[in-house]
Amino acid sequence: MTQAKGAAETSSTMESILDEHRHFPPSKVFSNGAHIKSIEQYEAMHKRSIDEPETFWAEIADQLHWFKKWDQVLDWRLPDAKWFVGGSTNICYNCIDRQIDAGLGNHTAIIWESEPLENGQPEVRKLTYYDLRREVSRFANGLKKLGVQKGDVVTIYMPMIPELAIAMLACARIGAVHSIIFGGFSASAIRDRVEDGKSKIVITADGGWRRGKIVPLKDNVDEALTLTDLVETVVVYERCKNNIVMADGRDHWWHEVISTASEHCPAEEMASEDLLFILYTSGSTGKPKGIMHTTGGYMVYTYLTSRYTFDLHETKPDGNGGAENGDVYWCTADIGWITGHSYIIYGLLPNRVPTLMYEGAPDFPEKDRFWDIIERHQVTKFYTAPTAIRAFMKWGREWIDKHDISSLKVLGTVGEPINPEAWMWYHKVIGNEKCPIVDTWWQTETGGHMLTPLPGATTTTPGSCTRPFFGIDAAVVNSEGEEVSTNEGGILVVRKPWPSMLRGIYGNRERFLETYWSKIEGCYTAGDGARKDENGNFWIMGRIDDVIVVAGHNLGTMEVESALVSHEAVAEAAVVGFPHDIKGTGIAAFVTLVGGIEETDELKAQVRNHVAKELGPISKPDKLRFTPALPKTRSGKIMRRLLRDIAAGREITGDITTLEDKSIVEKLQQNSD
Ligand code: WTA
Questions:
Q1: What is the DSSP letter of 351?
Q2: Is 441 marked as binding a ligand?
Q3: Overall average pLDDT of the 281-289 stretch
C-alpha cells in the first residue's frame, strides 16, 4: 500500500467533516488578557519563527536558566538537528530551582489527588517548589547511592502519584535517562522495554489504586524479571500496602533509600543534546520504538507550547499587597504517555502554574469525579482526550450540572481526531460556550504541540486542529512531495526542524531513517494523512500506516497480532481498527485456528484475554471473529482494507481482483464476532 493511497483510503471519515463550517472566534475579553491576542500577531510571529528560527528560539531559550549559553542555536544536517549547541542546562533546575530563585519557593508546584479511599475521602497532597526540591533531591541522592550514574537508563513503572513525578525529576536532576512505562502495561511489555533500553534498575510501587482495586505493579515487575536477568536493582514505593515479595539484595524500599539521603543535590550540568528520556511508542511493524528526546530543545519547546497553547498565567502580586490568582492546570493523561511527560511535568512546571495529578478513573466512585475535582481545585485549564469526552457525553450532562465548573477558561483535546459532535458538546456543556477549545495535534516523536489553535488568537472549527505552532513548517503533500490543492487529502509532513523533534529511535538508526525520513525527500513524515482547507486550517484524517489509535493510545496492529498468534490455538491473525462509539477506534481481530481445534465462544474469550495479559487491557480486541482463512493477495499480503470494511459492517467497495481466494469474502461475512 502506498502512502498516498493510504491517505485516500481514509476519505470516508473526511467527507463527514468536509461540510463543517461553524466558526468560533475567541471573545474580545479573552483575547485582551491573552499572551497572543490576535491572528495577525500569530501570523507575524509565525512568519518570523520560520524565516529567522535562530533569533526566534534564542529569545525564548533566554527566558529559562542555562549554566552556559549556547554557541549555535541550530545545527541542521538532515535528518539530524542539534539545538542550542555548546549550551548546558538542567530541565529539573528549570522545573523547580528557577522558581525558588525567583522567590516563589512557597508557591504550589503539584496538586495531587487520589481516588476516594475506604472512608470516601480522597487523599490530597500539595507540593510547593521547596517540597519538590527537597523530595527530588533526596531521591536523586538515593539513586546515586544505588549506583545510578549520568547516562544510565532508569525504568519507571509507577501509579499516578507524586513519587512518579519525583522519580522522573530526580533522574533529570542527576542526568540519568528515564524510560517510563505506563502502569497499565503488563510483564512482557516491561521485559521488552527493559531489554531494549538495557536498563539495570526499575522504580515501581507495591501497587496502584484503580476503581477501588489494587493494580499489582510489583508483581508485574517480578514476573517481568523472571523473563530477563538484566535488572540488578528494584526500588519499591509503598503505596497500597498489599502483600508483595521483596527479593533480597535486589529490591529496596523507597523510604529506606531516602531515609539517610541528603536534601541537597546539585542539578547536574547537562549538555543541551544530552539524552533526557526514552519513551516507547508502537510502530506499524515489529517491536515498539524507543523515541529519544534530548534536554535543551525539548525543554524550550514544551515550555513555550504550554505557555501559549493553554495561555498560562502565573499567580502575581496585584500591587495592593494581595495576589492576582493565576491558573490551575489539569491534564488528565497518565505520565506514562508523552502527553503526561510534556504537559503534566516538563512544559508546565517552568511556567510556574500548579499542575494537577490525579490517580484514579473518571467514573469512580461516580461519573462526576472530574467535575468534582475541577470545582474543588478551581481548575482553569483542562486537557483531556476525545475518548474521554465521548464517554462524558454518553453518561449525560446531569453529572456536570451537579458542579460549578465556571472556573474553566481553556479546554484542550489530544490523541486522536475529535468528531465535531463531541467538539460541540465539549464547547457547550463543559465550556459553557465561553472557553476556547484547543485541539492539539502532535506525537510522541514531536515532543510537543505541532498543530494547534492559540486560544486568544485562533478562530476554531469543530474537528480541525487549525494552524502550525511557532517554528513549525507543516504541509500536506502527495507521494512526490508536491503540495496538494486546498481540501485535497495527502501526507502530512514537516519541512523544517523544530527544537523538540525526536533525535532517534534508541539503538536503531536504520529504523529511524526508514520510518520518518525515507518517504518524502528532506521532510519529516508523521504517518498521518491530512488536508488543509481554504482558511489554512489542517484536518487530520488518521494514520496512513497500520498503527491504530485506540482510546487515544497508539497501538501497533502487528503487536496485537503477535500476541494473538502466541496463543497455542491460534494459527494466524489479522487486526484492524473499526469505528467505535466511545474509543473512537476499536480493535477487530480475525483469527484462524490451528487445525482440528473447535471454534467455541469460550475459546474466543480465552484468546481475547490472552492478548490483554500479553500486552495490557487496552490492547484487548473488542471483536474477534474466527475464519477458515485470511484474505490475502497473491503476493501473500493480507488485504486489510477488506477486513476494515467487514469489521465496520460496511459494504465492500474496493477492488478485490488481486485476492487469492475470493470465496473467503463470503465466509468472513457469514461468521459473527
Ligand atoms: C493521533 C499523542 C488527530 C495522530 C500526543 C498521531 C491526533 C498520533 C491528534 C500520535 C489530534 C494525536 N487530532 N489525531 N489532535 N493528536 N493524534 O504518539 O494519529 O501517542 O500521529 O502522541 O495520535 O500519538 P502519540
A1: G
A2: yes
A3: 70
The model's pTM: 0.87
Distance, first Cα to last Cα, the chain = 27
The residues, ordered by sequence, that sit 6+ positions from 97 with a Cβ below 8 Å of its Cβ are 65, 129, 133, 267
Q: How confident is the model at residue 625 (pLDDT cuts 50, 70, 90)?
A: very high
Residue 451 alpha carbon, nearest atom of ligand 1: 15
Q: Do residues 641 and 9 lie in contact, with contact meaning Cβ atoms separated by under 8 Å?
A: yes
Q: What is the pLDDT of residue 506?
A: 98
Residues 6+ apart with CB under 8 A from 266: none
Task: Decide if domain 127-282 falls under CATH 3.40.50.980.
Answer: yes
Task: Give the burial class of 326: count Cβ atoms within 10 A of its Cβ; 0-12 exposed, 13-18 middle, 19 or more buried.
Answer: middle
pLDDT tens figures, 363-390: 999 999 999 999 999 999 999 998 899 8
Largest CA distance in the chain: 83
Q: What is the ipTM of this complex?
A: 1.00
- C-alpha 501 to ligand 1 mean position (Å): 15
- Which stretches of 434-555 are DSSP H helices? 509-517
CA 548/CA 50 separation, integer angstroms: 32
3-state secondary structure of 68: strand
Cα–Cα distance list, 382 to 259, 355, 371 (Å): 36, 10, 11
- Mean residue pLDDT of the chain comes to 91
Q: Phi-psi region for residue 499, left (φ > 0), alpha (ψ -120 to 50) or beta?
A: alpha
Q: Is the CB of 545 under 6 A from ligand 1?
A: no
User: Do the annotations mark residue 69 as ligand-binding?
Assistant: no
Q: Report whether 355 contacts 331 (CB < 8 A).
A: yes
Helix H, strand E, coil C: the string for 221-265 is: HHHHHHCCCCCCEEEEECCCCCCCCCCCCCEEEHHHHHHCCCCCC
Q: How far apart are CA 673 and CA 623, in angstroms?
A: 6
- Find out whether 109 and 128 touch, Cβ atoms under 8 Å: yes
d(CA 253, CA 247): 11
User: Cα 394 to the chain's mean position, in Å?
Assistant: 24
Cα of 417 vs centre of ligand 1, distance in Å, is 8
Helix then strand count (H, E) for the chain reads 23, 32
Neighbour-count burial of 29, counting CB atoms closer than 10 A to its CB (0-12 exposed, 13-18 middle, 19+ buried) = exposed
Q: Which CATH superfamily is domain 547-671 in?
A: ANL, C-terminal domain (3.30.300.30)
Domain ranges in the chain are 127-282, 547-671
Check the annotation: does 545 bind a ligand: no
Q: What residue owns the CA closest to ligand 1's atom 11?
A: 441
- At 16 the pLDDT is 39
What SS3 state is found at 294? strand
**Is 543 marked as a binding-site residue?**
yes
623 CB contacts (<8 Å, ≥6 apart)? 578, 586, 587, 588, 589, 647, 673
| pLDDT tens for each residue of 376-435 | 999 999 999 988 998 898 899 999 999 999 999 999 999 888 888 899 999 999 999 999
